[in-house]
Design a protein that fits this description.
- By secondary structure, the protein is mainly α.
- The strands form seven sheets. Strands 7-10-11 form a three-stranded mixed sheet, with no helix packed on it. The protein has a two-stranded antiparallel ribbon with strand order 1-5. Strands 2-3 form a two-stranded antiparallel sheet.
Length: 640
């Protein structure tokens, strides 16, 4: 038997005891010098006000998760259009999981996990605001009711985004204060019932206007409620509890918003976006002045706030260079300047990190000459920002002993509209032998003037430009290292109200105040036509066929031609990139598979030319983190 030294044991126990006693008085015990906790802070007006305000910042994070909302649709893909357009014989090409809808679209996708986590984080904050309101005794009832209405709106918005993505979902209505592995799915129809109940209550509680910019108003609640009724009316898979009456309810809310006069459409569509000179070296607007008109627009019913650095400060992306929280919309959509003579890594054109590339079909849905939204959305000209030159000696297959020089402000590249093809070589740039222009010229039929390329062909063009810049959200004067703008993200605006009304009428809604569906639709269209109002704008009759520039169709509505596809086209033209709505619009109307296959080349291509999109993709897979952290394990959506 081993012998023990009793003295050493006693000494050791004494030291351990002293250490434990010392620790108890220092870092092992929580020390709260202000004695402030959620239970005693959220019981008064000041504390409760801060709780409701804390429900706003997460909207920045949520709305910047745009990939699941936009990509894999008829209008946006993760990858550029060039691969499939240039190399139609290349069988190894593969789009993103969201565009190809193949086996990679599964529970492990980070974007879906992030979106899920953010939505439920927001829901929990809103639950706390709704629940804890009863304990606040020193707040004027009208103010407290307004704050409850705000929280119920924000909770409803989060549930609405979640139920559209995933179908049956957990629906906690109480603040989570303790850990639990039990997760119960609520049927989608019950989620819609709760959303509608909360929004109706919010409509009653919220004021028509708010003193603080960006707070929810009665109009915002009516807008969201109209969209919810519209979505439930389509009754996806007969699972939402919808009926024809929902379309009439949606229409009534739209008419209320229109007749209120609070949200008049801008006379000039371009006033909705930051002011910017297409030649950045001729820019005169500052960061603040470029967004002043857009951020003050009465057409915007609800916007995510970025202009005021102190407004609802909290969780979103923050610039390390400026300390400001900002909007990244001007950075993440397709396009960038051409390569020749451009400044490197500066704020002149800022940086382009495209996550959402416009399909060629989207360009071809506009009349480039008549519809002001084409040039307002896209910048088809690239300018030199420094004096420079480019050699054509290594160009293939057109190598030339030629160097092209540029001065600051010179045009370096243009992309002609889809309905203005280059038919003779002298219309092209000097990078093509016989070309007359001192800049690159691109068109949608034949980018390099050598016909459709095969996978084995090598083309090098030191002047080439792939396509127009997505210019709608561009804001000048932003530091390169920042990447965020002060443009308030317009989540809801009244132009969409008119289109939602048109959609409801096409689906049988009754009681319209303005007339037939085409009347509502053409209100939006004629604003976009400006001085051409009343005329027939022409889009490509088959936007997906880039070779056809002569077959065109009018997109003016009449009582006889208006249908869901025409309305979806107009949603696309008017709201391109806005509101995180495109995937939802296509799913709601039962058009996602049809239109993604028709207009998104990557979805059409699928895997090695075999389409993969299927009805299971009308719901997203429940994220892996939710599956792993639930016990009993929450059921995955069918097919995943």
């Amino acid at each position: 038997m081993k012998k023990y030294n009793v003295k050493h044991i006693i000494l050791s126990l004494t030291i351990v005891g002293l250490l434990l006693a010392g620790c108890k008085k220092t870092f092992l015990d929580e020390y709260n010098p202000s004695n402030r906790t959620t239970d005693n802070y959220y019981t008064n007006a000041a504390g409760y006000e801060s709780l409701v305000v804390s429900c706003y910042p997460l909207l920045r994070d949520i709305t910047q998760q745009r990939v699941p909302f936009l990509n894999g649709t008829d209008m946006f893909s993760s990858g550029g259009w060039g691969g499939l357009l240039i190399y139609p014989t290349q069988t190894t090409q593969l789009g993103s999981a969201y565009d190809s809808y193949d086996l990679r679209l599964n529970a492990s996708l980070g974007e879906l996990q992030t979106l899920w986590d953010l939505l439920y984080k927001e829901i929990n904050r809103c639950n706390a605001a709704v629940e804890r309101s009863t304990g606040v005794t020193d707040m004027v009832d009208s103010v407290k009711n307004t704050r409850i209405g705000e929280a119920k709106f924000l909770r409803s918005l989060s549930f609405f985004w979640a139920v559209q993505q995933w179908g049956d979902i957990p629906m906690p209505l109480k603040e989570t204060t303790t850990g639990s592995l039990e997760v119960v799915k609520t049927p989608a129809k019950d989620v819609y019932t709760q959303i509608i109940t909360d929004l109706n209550d919010a409509v009653l509680k919220l004021p028509a206007t708010q003193k603080d910019a960006g707070r929810v108003t009665k109009g915002a609640a009516k807008f969201l409620l109209a969209r919810v009724y519209l979505t439930r009316g389509w009754n996806f898979n007969n699972s939402l509890g919808g009926s024809a009456a929902d379309f009439t309810s949606a229409l009534a809310l739209c008419d209320d918003l229109i007749s209120s006069g609070l949200y008049p459409m801008e006379t000039n569509w371009n006033n909705l976006w930051p002011i910017h000179n297409k030649n950045p070296k001729a820019e005169t607007a500052t960061v603040a002045s470029s967004v002043a008109t857009a951020n003050a627009s009465k057409e915007v019913i609800f916007a995510i706030q970025y202009a005021n650095a102190l407004a609802y400060n909290g969780d979103a992306n923050m610039s390390t260079s400026t300390g400001l929280i900002g909007n990244n919309m001007h950075t993440v959509f397709s396009g960038g300047p051409s390569g020749p003579a451009q400044e490197s890594r500066t704020s002149t054109y800022n940086r382009f990190l495209p996550q959402h590339n416009v399909t060629w079909a989207a360009y071809r849905m506009f009349d480039p000459q008549m519809d002001v939204r084409y040039e307002g959305t896209f910048n088809s000209v690239s300018y030199a920002t420094v004096a420079g030159s480019v050699s054509l000696a290594s160009n293939k297959p057109y190598n030339q002993s030629l160097t092209v020089t540029y001065k600051i402000g010179d045009t370096t590249a243009v992309v002609y509209p889809w309905n203005r093809p280059t038919t003779t070589v002298d219309q092209l740039g000097v990078n093509i032998p016989g070309g007359k222009k001192n800049y690159a010229v691109a068109n949608t039929i034949d980018l390099f003037w050598v016909g459709k390329l095969t996978a084995t062909q090598t083309v090098t063009d030191n002047m080439a430009w792939g396509g127009p810049i997505f210019w709608k959200f561009w804001q000048p004067g932003i530091l390169y290292g920042d990447g965020y703008s002060t443009f308030n993200d317009p989540l809801f605006r009244s132009a969409e109200v008119y289109l939602m009304a048109a959609e409801a009428i096409v689906k049988g809604a009754t009681g319209a105040k303005l007339g037939t569906a085409d009347v509502y639709y053409n209100k939006v269209l004629d604003r976009a036509l400006g001085s051409n109002a009343g005329k027939d704008p022409l889009c490509a009759a088959n936007p997906a066929n880039v070779n056809d520039v002569t077959t065109v169709a009018s997109y003016r509505a009449t009582p006889y031609n208006i249908n869901i596809d025409m309305i979806l086209d107009e949603y696309g033209r008017e709201l391109l990139g806005e509101g995180n709505e495109r995937w939802f619009q296509l799913k709601r109307t039962g058009k996602l598979i049809e239109r993604a296959l028709k207009y998104n080349g990557w979805t059409t291509w699928g895997v090695a030319g075999t389409k993969q999109i299927d009805t299971k993709h009308l719901l997203r897979p429940i994220p892996q983190g939710m599956l792993d952290n639930s016990n009993p394990r929450i059921l995955q959506n069918p097919g995943y």
